[in-house]
Amino acid sequence: MIPILYSFRRCPYAMRARMALILASKECELREILLKNKPDEMLEISSKGTVPVMQFADKVLDESLDIISWAMESPVSNVYIYTGTEELLSEELIKLFDSKFKYHLDRYKYSSRYGTDPKNHQDECKIILNDLEDKINPKPWIFGKEVSLLDISILPFIRQCKIANPDWFFAQSFIKVIDLLNYFENSDLFTQAMQKYDLWDPNKNNGKIFP
Question: What structural domains and CATH numbers belong to the chain?
Fold first, then answer.
C-alpha cells in the first residue's frame, strides 16, 4: 500500500511535510481532517492527536521533521544541498523556530487562549525575525536559486506570524524576511502544497493521491 498522510491544510507542520513530499515526488494518500474532529483511525495510530501523521505498512511517523527526513532519504535534484557551515546554520534555525519562535507565536496569535499579553510575545517574535534578517540574503531562497529544507521548515511559521497582524508585520524592518515570504507564497511549491481537498470521510474512502 502507499503511505497514508493525515493532514490539516493550514497547520504549518503539515504544510512543510506536504512540501517535502512534493519536492521528493513521494506519493501518498492524503486524508484532510479537522483538528476539532480527529478521526478515530488517526488517533488509533498516533495518540498525540496532532498532524501530520504518516502511516506505512510497518511503521508510523507523527513528527513533521521525521516525515521530511524520510522523503529526503534519496537524493532530490530540486532541493539545495548544504555546503560547509550551512547545514549547522539550518539545524540551528529550524530548532529555534520549532521551539522559541513557535512558543511566542502561539501566545501572540492565540493570546486569549493562553491568557497572555500579545505585545510581549509579538516583540519576542520580532527579535527572532530581526536576527534572521541579519543571517540571510535570499536569492530568492535562503541559499540561492533552489529551495532548501530550511526554507520549507521555517517559512510556514513566519507566514503564521504575518497572518496574525499583516499591517504590523509589513511595517517591520526585516525586509529580506518579508521578500522571502512573499516569494514563498507566490511559488508553485506553495500553491501545490496548499491545494484544497474535501475532508476525508472513512465511509466514502475519499482520500486523494498526493502530490
Answer: 4-77+191-210 (3.40.30.10), 86-188 (1.20.1050.10)
- Rounded distance between C-alpha atoms, residue 74 and residue 21, angstroms: 12
Strand segments (E) across the chain: 4-7, 28-32, 53-55, 60-61, 208-210
DSSP character at residue 133 = H
Helix 149-164 with 12-24: angle, nearest 10 deg: 150
**pLDDT tens for each residue of 89-121:** 999 999 999 999 999 999 999 999 999 999 999
pLDDT digits (tens, 9 = 90+) for 30-43: 999 999 999 999 99
Distance CA 161, CA 122 (A): 9
pTM for the model stands at 0.95
139 φ, ψ to 5°? -145, 65
Question: Distance (Å, rounded) from C-alpha 3 to C-alpha 54?
Answer: 7
- How remote is the C-alpha of 78 from its chain's centroid? 18
**What is the spatial distance between Cα 211 and Cα 23, in angstroms, rounded to a whole number?**
9
